[in-house]
Design a protein that fits this description.
With 450 residues, this protein is α/β, with parallel strands linked by helices. The protein has 14 helices and 17 strands. The radius of gyration is 22 Å and the shape is globular. It binds pyridoxal-5'-phosphate. Pyridoxal-5'-phosphate (PLP) binds next to α6.
Length: 450
């Protein structure tokens, strides 16, 4: 296959300054994050290149989705072959890629999560999981979710996510009780507890909420096994076992949102493998598609499935995404990316923890694999969140050729994220660390620029 990049044929890849300006005027912002200060031209591995030829090491993997890197040739080949055969096929028809992918995911999935439903985005997959929980709990409609959890931006997923400070959509959101989770660095029950005491306090609180805080039957509990957007929060492993036991005791459907954690990001295929806990429903997305939109709901064989019309979308079984996902799984296995992610994760966190001694702004360094968060604080004792500083690091990092991530949105978070493609090299990792070191030194010596 000849790439348009090398053949010189590149339809829609160049435009006049006037056309670009008109496009910018017409494009409504998504209300999501700050605008990147460049136009993307192409990418390879962990690096993206802009139209001026400048290179950036991408520690966001484009919303944590390009685990296997930019423009992987095996994805390009699989998708090119697919689009010359057929593109869109609606969900009622069988295709070979769809059946192969369902089989492959059922084989990979932990425990008895052997049935698969496909969707396109994380949010619609989470809503599908919520509907399944309601079907299996005979219409119970209340959900429990965790403080700082994030599950998407549709009405249902907004409801189970951390409360947005400017949320005007509440009347369309369903009944949810949010319970505290063991964010050990900022223990919701105050200082002075061990990690295990924090876990037990959260479990106790959750039990009390189930018994006393909810009107009517509860469908299930929805959580990320490692909270990404809300603050890169890692829970002590015992929490996972205890939450599983609590859900079993009350017959609640346990939904794990592995949209960020799945497909090698934490140095295991799934967080469920890492923690040895199997939820009743697991939702995957992002890294699954190797850059193509696809998400899926993996469901326990013990649960009832959807009824016709429960959850159906025109493009939900998009064949190019199916082959991209199959190729992604092959790449993860063939290139040993689970092991690579573990190694590079240790490479980063060892050096970050050493840097912590020199940088009072670095309150905490968290995360296994390449799921790394650095919590910035103005004062190590009070742990006052350094939100403006985190936003500055992200903005200024981009100018110096490193794209860092930031927790939550629009300056709401104080955690700088390092979640690059697993194929990041050691020299690239060294460059990322050097830029972060430089930025923190500037902040600590000169303060925030006014
Ligand atoms: C853990 C988690 N769940 C759900 C979502 C929502 O996915 P999407 O943006 O594809 O709807 C995200 C997106 O960032 C996520 O991180």
């Amino acid at each position: 296959m000849t790439s348009p990049l090398t053949s010189g044929l590149a339809p829609y890849q160049t435009a006049s300054e006037e056309d670009l300006a008109a496009g910018r005027r017409a494009l409504m912002g998504g209300g999501v994050a700050g605008q990147a200060a460049f136009i993307v031209d192409h990418g390879s591995g962990a690096v993206v290149v802009d139209t001026e030829g400048r290179e950036y090491i991408d520690c966001t993997s484009q919303a944590w989705s390009l685990g296997i890197g930019y423009a992987h040739p095996r994805i390009a080949a699989a998708v090119a072959e697919q689009v010359y055969r057929y593109t869109h096929i609606r969900t009622g028809f069988e295709t070979v890629p769809k059946l192969l992918l369902a089989k492959r995911l059922a084989e990979l999935a932990p425990g008895d999560l052997k049935r698969v439903a496909f969707t396109l985005s994380g949010s619609d997959a989470i809503e599908g999981a919520m509907k399944l929980a309601m079907r299996n709990r005979d219409g119970a409609s209340t959900f429990l979710s965790l403080w700082e959890g994030y599950h998407g931006r549709t009405f249902g997923t907004l409801a189970v996510s951390w409360p947005h400070p400017d949320n005007i959509f509440g009347r369309w959101m369903g009944p949810v009780v949010r319970v505290p989770a063991p964010y050990v660095y900022r223990n919701p029950f105050g200082e002075g507890m061990t990690a295990e005491e924090c876990v037990d306090a959260c479990i106790h609180f959750t039990r009390q909420a189930i018994l006393h805080a909810v009107d009517g039957p509860i469908a299930g509990l929805i959580m990320e096994p490692f909270q990404g957007n809300g603050g890169m929060i890692e829970f002590p492993p015992s929490y996972h076992r205890k939450i599983r036991e609590l859900c079993d005791e009350f017959g609640l459907v346990l939904i794990w949102d592995e949209i960020q954690t799945g497909f090698a990001r934490m140095g295991a295929m799934f967080a469920a493998d890492l923690y040895g806990v199997v939820p009743d429903i697991m939702v995957i997305g992002k890294g699954l598609g190797g850059g193509f939109p696809i998400s899926a709901i993996l469901v326990s064989e013990r649960l009832r499935g959807f009824k016709p019309g429960d959850h159906s979308f025109t493009h939900a079984h998009f064949p190019p995404s199916m082959v991209a996902a199959l190729a992604t799984i092959d790449v993860i296995e063939a290139e040993g990316l689970i092991e690579r992610c573990r190694q590079m994760g240790t490479y980063f966190t060892t050096r970050l923890r050493a840097m912590q001694a020199r940088h009072p702004l670095m309150g905490d360094v968290r995360g296994p694999g390449l799921m790394i968060g650095i919590e910035l604080v103005r004062d190590r004792d009070t742990k006052e969140p350094a939100r403006k500083e985190a936003a500055w690091v992200v903005r200024e990092g981009m100018r110096r050729g490193v794209i860092f991530g930031e927790s939550k949105y629009l300056g709401l978070g104080n955690i700088v994220k390092i979640k690059p493609p697993f194929v990041i090299t050691e020299p690239q990792a060294d460059r990322v660390l050097a830029v972060l070191d430089e930025l923190l030194t500037e902040l600590e010596t000169r303060g925030l620029p006014s």
